[in-house]
Amino acid sequence: MDKVIPYGRQYIDQEDIDAVVEVLRGDWLTQGPKVEEFERAVAEYCGARYAIAFNSGTSALHGAMYAAGVGPGDEVLTAPITFAASANAAVYLGARPRFVDIDISTYCIHIDKIEASISERTRAIVPVDYAGYPLDIETVNDIARRHGLVVIEDAAHALGARRATAGRPAAGQPLGSQADMTILSFHPVKHITTGEGGMVLTDQVEFYKKMMVFRTHGITKDPGSMQEDHGPWYYEMQDLGYNYRLTDIQSTLGRSQLKKLEGFVAQRNRLAERYNEALAGTSWIQTPPPAPAGSRHAYHLYPILVSPEMDRRKVFDYLRGKGIGVQVHYIPVHLHPYYRRCFGCRPGDFPVSEGFYAREISLPMFPGLSLADQDRVVETLINF
Ligand SMILES: *Cc1c(COP(=O)(O)O)cnc(C)c1O
Q1: What's the gap in Å between 331 CA and the centre of ligand 1?
Q2: Model-level pTM greater than 0.85?
Q3: Ligand 1 in contact with 187 (CB < 6 A)?
Q4: Cβ of 33: how many Cβ atoms within 10 Å?
Q5: Residue 172 Cβ contacting ligand 1 at under 6 Å
Q6: Tens of pLDDT, residues 339-383
Q7: Residue pair 198/223 in contact by the 8 Å Cβ criterion
Q8: Surface-to-core class of residue 111, CB atoms within 10 Å of its CB (0-12 exposed, 13-18 middle, 19+ buried)
Q9: From atom 4 of ligand 1, which residue's Cα is the shortest distance away?
């Protein structure tokens, strides 16, 4: 059989390997200077004041929700078409995720449906830039401001996306400072990788301080914020936190990967354009919505929708049988047994998301995908 083409894959070069080998020979494997270097580099790239590295995108979401004050009895709004972590992080803190259906013109949370889902208990909104599409965060921010909510943008798919914002350069502005907090993931299928890893970006010092303490057991050594002082060894655990630290080894890899990000995103956009052109004449395939004018898509995924009359399962099995490692993103979170059991979610609750799930297939999309392999994907798909 032909070699299997995955739907996503990391791109690691000799420069990345050399950088990691060098840190292994040094004094610090964790809690050294590399974490801060990586944080500063990502903050600068994204135009955010603060960046807090975490050991996964999931722990970054947990930290952001903690900083937002999410707690027992609260509600957090997100879309069903996302990775489970977007909702799970609220559950970790005793809150209840409340889902808002997606907008079929963006595949992201339906912004006009947010307000109807806000209650007395709502604390935060977690919009997800699905596939790397920069959603309309300004309207989400306006809604949040009116209701006193915190906006945590789950940009795990969207590092490198740019968004047209009023009064900003024509090329658009990177994601990272437009929401109260913005979350990134450095899992190997994402834009840059640290193996496992994540980050929160924010301009607000209070959120930053809370997350710095939260990611290291709730412990502080800052003399200005401690209640007692027993001596030079003294530190205080002031709240319940976790060990959510990223290592120096991982941060070094991330710093090296970041240098290649612009090239990665450009290549993802080139591949998306090639897919768009090659599939334009195939009536049973719907290609994904392009980024709004003045914005740049980050194309973490290239999601196609097969027409409702088609059997998605047959298309999927056919492609997998031909060595094309397609995937489906995502099983709507509310349909997982845990969410049905613990939160009373049911099929039919979010019809647009469920209809989307029934039709979606993610085609291979990663910077190292050769044009020849991409052509093979297209030919196989059209031959079906
Ligand atoms: C990848 C991802 C995350 C975080 O995942 P980790 O694997 O913990 O880094 C969060 N939300 C979305 C939408 C994701 O795709």
Answers
A1: 14
A2: yes
A3: yes
A4: 12
A5: no
A6: 999 999 999 999 999 999 999 999 999 999 999 999 999 999 999
A7: no
A8: buried
A9: 57
